Amino acid sequence: MSGIGTKYRNLKRYKKIGEVLMKYGFTFAAQKLNEKGYIPKLILKPKQQKEYLSHGQKLRMACEELGPTFIKLGQIISTRRDIFPEEVVSQLAKLQDDVKPFPFEEAKKVFEVEMKLRIEDCFKEFNREPIASASIGQVYEAVLNTGENVVVKIQRPSIQRIIKGDLDILFTLAKLLDEHMDKEKPYNLLEIVEEFSRSITKELDYSLEGRNAEKFHAYFKKDTSIYIPQVYWDYTSKKVLTMERVYGIKIIDKQGLKEKKWDLKEVATISANCFLKQVFIYGFFHGDPHPGNIFVVGPSKIAFVDFGITGYLDKGTMNFISNLFTASARRDVDKIVNILIEIDALDSQTNPRRLKEDISFLINLYYNVPLNKLNLGEALKKLMEVAYTNKIKLPSQFIVLLKAMVTLEGSVKFLNPQFSLSNIAKDFVKEIYFHRYNPKNLAGEFKDYSEEILDSIKYLPKQIRTLLKKIENNDIKFQLEQIGIEKLQGELSKMTNKLSLSLISSALIVGSSLIIQNASGPMMWGVSVFGIIGYLLASILGVGIIISILLSGLRKK
Fold first, then answer.
1. What is the 3-state secondary structure (H, E, C) of 321-346?
2. Strand partners, 295
């Protein structure tokens, strides 16, 4: 019943989509919608075809005509050069999220319904003219009653309902097309719509953007070269976001920076260094670092704004990136292919020999190119072409990262055409090293590892009991040499002792890790003395157990 209800609620929208599909020659999709009763047959009348346009141009124009949801979907598709042809993604990359502003009275109503407060009671000043307008919301300048200059982002009225309706239609269309299209295509339309649905749902919740900003602020609060604006939670909700106003010069405004006599090369280095920290230290990065979202606020200080799109790198993806770049640096093509197999990126139709040839060509093409002459955007574009040709599907967060890297590279190279990663790589590698091997971080890793070991040991007696029970019930049959009951008891006693020592050692590691993380007791070199003592005792016990095992093995020989 809910499916039928949704269908009829969206009937008018289905009709509009059917007309646009026919207008731009996507008759197959329109016919499938008609067969399932979503659009009337009348819409299928032949329209004058725009044969002079490419498929990419037709798709871009159709998205523009269908509005915000389809524009944003097109923008996501434009980042997937690994699964769509270059002609399509290059056209969709031209889609602009730029729409006419909606009236102030509507924005005021949204704010007051969300906050249950009048705008006049919250702000000393509120500029009725928006400074930016996009498909989901628009931004206003204001001054709080307490005197702080802020920007207020207010969501478009009914945009959630509109997008939800369009998503229902996109899911229906994706399922229909997946059922009738080539099963060997390197992508699944339903998966793409699911990814898009997750992305745009997050963008619709401004409180998530606020939390992203706070997370960045926590990471960079001690970094004097990076500024993250404050979130004012008293005036923030799912549909309203109030943040500190950032005053500065956009990173791409070369003339404005020169007039301030600020060092362009230093600004470029700070921007690149900040992004590297986000990716390789925090695993959490700004997903849309275009010039409008980065301001220079001082001679050696930049600020980020708009945290609606962010990327997360879990340990698996971090390891994938690290291993991929290491193997590429060594020109180890077999290793690269094995890494792709491990993450299940290869299609059943991928030709391994062709893939190795393409990867080898790509590596040799860029291997000896000096970093300051390397065009990252061009290199990544060729990488995506290899992925598309060989039907390789890369992790979505990896794609977000590549897009962010290319976007940032454009701004950095604009400020300093001679910029090279080698300018900052040496110092940054040291920073990664110190971060990873910081005692507190090591303590956290040891704690996770020790808990994993303890869990395994904790369930070992139960597994042994289960095994013995099966033996008792004759569920397992095996042959034993007669070795004498006393010898068997001795071996069991030794095994129990080793197991007990292992538990004690693991407990010491976990306890010491907690002590170091909480900085309890007297300190030495910034680390808890009790924690160090615990690690030493655990190490001694561990070495003793290893020696005992080795000696036992030698005696048996």
1. HHHHHHHHHCCCHHHHHHHHHHCCCE
2. 250, 303
